[in-house]
Amino acid sequence: MSSKLRIAFIQSFLHWEEPEANRSLFDTLLPPPGTCDLVLLPEMFATGFSMNPELSRHSPDMVQWMQQRAVEGNYALAGSLPWLEKDKRYNRFFCCTPNQQQFTYDKRHLFAFAKEDQVFSPGNQGLCFEFRGWKMAAFVCYDLRFPVWMRRHAAFDYDLALVPANWPERRSEAWKALLKARAIENQSYVLGLNRVGYDGNGVLHSGDSLLFDGLGKTLAAARPFHTQTLSAVLSKETLEQQRRQFPFQNEADSFVLT
User: Please, how many CA atoms are within 13 Å of residue 68, restricted to the half-sphere of its CB?
Assistant: First the structure.
């Protein structure tokens, strides 16, 4: 257990519907073994944000690759993939750890504007997991617009929110504002990782990947439109001090999400 967490996040273009090409790409971008504790990849990093239902057949091999790289790198490796289970498809977040644990979360809020809801089924269970003494919560892209779903509370407590995304450039101002808002209102580190470049539907992505602390201060910001691996060291002591100094959660409204 450590009061520090070394994280890396890879803002990159994605080869459209080419899992093997993307696997090779990220092999060149992953940080060296032992240099961090957690590495985050974008939403649907193996295929891009494609609604082709056949692409989920590649995902078991991609999870095996994630697990192998996590063991080799001695860090957790996370991102989302299209996943088929019992005749239903999910946009599933995976986090593979060096000790071969796997944590999963199925994207709750599907982006109907891009017909994601016609291909994938929504998840109904949030994910909080612990790794190296840090409590982390997983969300995916469009989840960011729904503060009730991301709300930190006693039964869903986290130090770091992970938000891999394929968020279009035309709504980049909303992306940046919502990430900062989620950090402030939950008094948590929030890491939003977005892809760059055009996808197969001609949608442009600027990246604008960001890391905020619990007060909304920017700790890391990627260059727009550039493939870039960023890193940061998070402090548990700093986070806990901020929460003690400003105990806003004590006045939070109580309600149950159904």
Answer: 8
Does residue 258 form part of some domain? Answer: no
Known active-site residue 135: no
Catalytic hit among 96, 107, 176, 185? 107
Count of domains in the chain?
1
Token pair recorded at residue 129: 């997991």
What's the CATH code of the domain at 57? 3.60.110.10
pTM above 0.85, yes or no: yes
Own/partner long-range contacts of 17-22 (Cβ < 8 Å, ≥24 apart) = 17/47, 17/48, 17/50, 17/52, 17/55, 17/200, 18/47, 19/46, 19/47, 19/55, 19/58, 19/59, 19/61, 19/62, 22/46, 22/47
- What is the span of the domain harbouring residue 192? 4-251
Q: What is the pLDDT of residues 157-170, one digit of tens each?
A: 999 999 999 999 99
Q: Would you say residue 99 lies in a domain?
A: yes
- Concerning whether 36 is annotated as a catalytic residue, the answer is no
Of 36, 95, 141, 180, the active-site residue reads: 141
Does residue 43 carry a catalytic annotation? yes
